[in-house]
Amino acid sequence: MSLNDTISAIATPLGYSGIGIVRMSGSQSISVAKKIFQPPQDRKINWKSSFTIHYGWIINPKTGEYVDEVLLTLMRAPKTYTREDIVEINCHGGSVSLRKILNLTLKWGARLAEPGEFTKRAFLNGRIDLTQAESVLDIVQAKTEKGLEAALNQLEGGLSKKINFLEEEIIKLLSDFEAEIDFAYEDIKFLSPKEAKKHLYKILVDINSLLEMNQMDKIYREGVKVVITGKPNVGKSTLLNALLQRERAIVTPIPGTTRDTIEEMINIKGFPLRIIDTAGLKKTKNAVEKEALERTYLKLEEADITLLMLDGSLPLNGEDNYLFKKIKKRETLAVINKIDLPQRIDKEKVVSLFPEEKIIEISAKEEINLQKLIQKVANLMLKEIVPSFSDSRITVNLRQKKILEKVKKNINRALQGIDKNLPRELISFELREGLKRLGEITGKEINEKILNNIFSHFCIGK
Q1: What sign does the dihedral 14-17-22-23 (CA atoms) show?
Q2: Given pLDDT bands bounded at 50, 70 and 90, which one contains residue 439?
């Protein structure tokens, strides 16, 4: 990849839409646009202008063929997304016109952009740091409003500020240690071991707080896992369809219809919930059913919240009792289904096993009390699953988490060095290593291989 190249890509999904965009960035963007764009005869374009939109046509300069009627947007460096000259061609959203326009830009001076190269250039040209660059992908992939809010906060520098603060704290401490090394025999007051440890403990608290925020990132990316379980024919698939408001799972009166897990995403209170319908739990010798049960048990282990469905129209039996022992009670809601039918379930037994706030009676088929169930799921999620962060809009992804864990080890080794009265040079080494690693989060310290890996997950037009 060369920053001297002018790059081009389709910036909108291929398909049928009202508008499609071909984007160019680089020093030759406007030169290429001049070759393929034709305004109406009575209009002249000031090609030196910036943030202007011009009506006209894209043509093939060799044949004079008209390709599409477009709006051409000119954006002059440095006040652009990449800090380079940018041209955006807004055409009709058909895949044929988009590809023909893209091919013309490639033929007349641009090259095809690599995945994420526009955002990569924004980073390399100093407009954003690496955490902000990563947040661009989070914005594109946000599943809910809260996920979008967190990503936008990252783009505004929310995590960067936290990392910069940590760097400043380490630099202050490192400066004192190195001054003590250089001016050990001068009449200067340095931090005592007790004071130095106090500063290091404060840094550890801040690092631990950031590490906890990885859980929020996981929730925004993967969703809170809500597993629907129960014995066969209790109404699990009917509940899934009712929550989704569409027929996603096959529903029949025959027990055991669901043989595999079915996963769908819904939005509750701004958080993505991954609803997982599982096979009914029962004893079986059938090989296929055994495999389905193994998958159900695996999903139960992974569940953040379990909806244990009970058939209110039937007495509790051994299969129900087995489930009572199998599940994790803390994150479970007991869902008594089929209240539209005469009730035969032993409710006293259910009440003895679950607190009242974790029991809900519904009819999935008639959609009775579904909103109450959703509210109970939301309450449980916000109380037990989603941590109460001081700023839940800040998230830490897996790459950043791994780096912070290494920084934490550096700080802990510095603390041990003070306790063991090791030379200040060894303690300073750990602090410098920690400082260098923090720079990997924001991109101050980064190698090409890691950078390419990060941006490879982006779409080509971004």
Answers
A1: negative
A2: very high
Per CATH, which fold does 140-219+397-443 belong to?
Answer: Four Helix Bundle (Hemerythrin (Met), subunit A) (1.20.120)
* Candidates 1.20.120.450, 3.40.50.2000, 3.40.50.300, 1.10.3720.10; CATH matching 223-385: 3.40.50.300
Q: Does domain 7-123 have CATH number 3.30.160.20?
A: no
Encode pLDDT of 72-89 as tens digits: 999 999 999 999 999 999
Delimit the domains of the chain by residue range. 7-123, 140-219+397-443, 223-385
For the full predicted model, state whether its pTM sits above 0.70. Answer: yes
> pLDDT at residue 262 above 50?
yes
Q: State how far the Cα of 225 lies from the Cα of 277, in Å rounded to an integer.
A: 11
- According to the 3-state scheme, what is the secondary structure of the chain? CCCCCCEEEECCCCCCCCCEEEEEECCCHHHHHHHHEECCCCCCCCCCCCCEEEEEEEECCCCCCEEEEEEEEEECCCCCCCCCCEEEEEECCCHHHHHHHHHHHHHCCCEECCCCHHHHHHHHCCCCCHHHHHHHHHHHHCCCHHHHHHHHHHHCCHHHHHHHHHHHHHHHHHHHHHHHHHCCCCCCCCCCHHHHHHHHHHHHHHHHHHHHHHHHHHHHHHCEEEEEECCCCCCHHHHHHHHHCCCCCCCCCCCCCCCCCEEEEEEECCEEEEEEECCCCCCCCCHHHHHHHHHHHHHHHHCCEEEEEEECCCCCCHHHHHHHHHCCHHHEEEEEECCCCCCCCCHHHHHHHCCHHHEEECECCCCECHHHHHHHHHHHHHHHHCCCCCCCCCCCCHHHHHHHHHHHHHHHHHHHHHHCCCCHHHHHHHHHHHHHHHHHHHCCCCCHHHHHHHHCCCCCCC
pLDDT digits (tens, 9 = 90+) for 168-220: 999 989 888 877 665 655 555 667 889 989 999 999 999 998 998 887 777 88
Rounded Cα gap, residues 293 and 287, in angstroms: 10
